Amino acid sequence: MIEGGNIIWFMSVRMHAWTMSETVDEIFSRLNFGLFTQHVVVNAAKLINMERDESLRESVEDSDIISIDGMGIVWGARFLGHDVPERVAGVDLFYALLTRAELEHEPVYFLGAKPDVVEKAVANLRVKFPALDIAGYHHGYFWDDEEAVVDDIAKSGANMLFVAITSPKKENFINRWREKLGVKFVMGVGGTFDIAAGKSKRAPLFMQKHGLEWFYRLIQEPRRMWKRYLVTNTLFALKLLKFKILG
Q1: Which residues pair with 68 in a beta bridge?
Q2: CATH architecture of residue range(s) 7-196
Q3: What own/partner pairs with CB < 8 Å and gap ≥ 24 does 144-153 have?
Q4: Cα–Cα distance between 223 and 227 in angstroms, integer?
Q5: Which of 118, 138, 151, 205 could join 113 in a cystine, given CB atoms 3.0 to 4.6 angstroms apart?
Q6: What is the pLDDT of residue 207?
Q7: 161 CB contacts (<8 Å, ≥6 apart)?
Q8: How big, in percent rounded to 5, are the helix, strand and coil portions of the chain?
């Protein structure tokens, strides 16, 4: 496991400023040691929402590994003098972990999205990772009987759980049931199943590298994303300047 590692405090939130390979290695090292790992990624929007949602803040802070997803946080942390090597995008980490899980024969469970989306995502992932042990999957519309879904996950034999539900529902679900899920690793992956299913596309690589993936998503879904990106990004920028000036 990483001895100490590069852990920073950015805007009063603990974050793990690791590379993608370091993050994957640490997760599988913890798996091999039998340590439970609750993983979460943070971006500017989530950081701002944590200020007004105490349950979301608690769920993030209770996580064992907090990865830096958004380029806004990468740039902001560097602006305040922190050493952040790169962005660890949730969707890229998802695929990197599945690649490793296939090699190390770690069974996985997929939870979230609409029924047709998760089914298509699983079908595509079986093609992409033919040796991956998929212990089970379930759609994300189960709020009338959460415990039954939790029992299904626990009985599946999965060691790794990926939850594709919107924030803050996924963070709070994971934190609420972490003791009963029966897995060693759990990660919220947001809209990743939509991408795996081919329903949504990621921004071109040059937009990802220049921190414009949020703009690409805004163009794709303006009604759903305008407030998340335009409002929260503005609030994030103002908060960043405040930390820079006042410390």
Answers
A1: 42
A2: 3-Layer(aba) Sandwich (3.40)
A3: 146/173, 146/177, 149/111, 150/177, 150/180, 150/181, 153/109, 153/111, 153/181, 153/182, 153/183
A4: 8
A5: 118
A6: 77
A7: 108, 109, 111, 153, 181, 183, 185, 186, 187
A8: 55, 15, 30
Residue of 105, 88, 109 whose CA lies nearest to 26: 88
**pLDDT confidence of residue 222:** 74
Please name the residues in contact with 1: beta carbons below 8 A apart, sequence gap of 6 or more: 26, 29, 30, 33
Q: What is the pLDDT of residue 232?
A: 86
pLDDT score recorded for residue 4? 56
Q: What does DSSP assign to residue 136?
A: E
How many Cα neighbours within 13 Å face the side chain of 36?
A: 12
CA distance 22 to 3: 11
For residue 2, the model assigns a pLDDT of 61
pLDDT tens by residue, 49-66: 999 999 999 999 999 999
pLDDT of residue 81: 95
pTM over 0.70: yes
Beta-carbon contacts of 226 under 8 Å, excluding residues fewer than 6 positions away, are 218
- The pairs formed by 228-237 with CB atoms below 8 angstroms and a separation of 24 or more are 228/45, 229/45, 232/44, 232/45, 232/48, 232/49, 233/44, 233/45, 233/72, 235/48, 236/44, 236/45, 236/47, 236/48, 236/72, 236/76
| Secondary structure of 195-226 as H, E, C letters | HHCCCCCCCCHHHHHCCCHHHHHHHHCHHHHH
Q: What is the pLDDT of residue 204?
A: 79
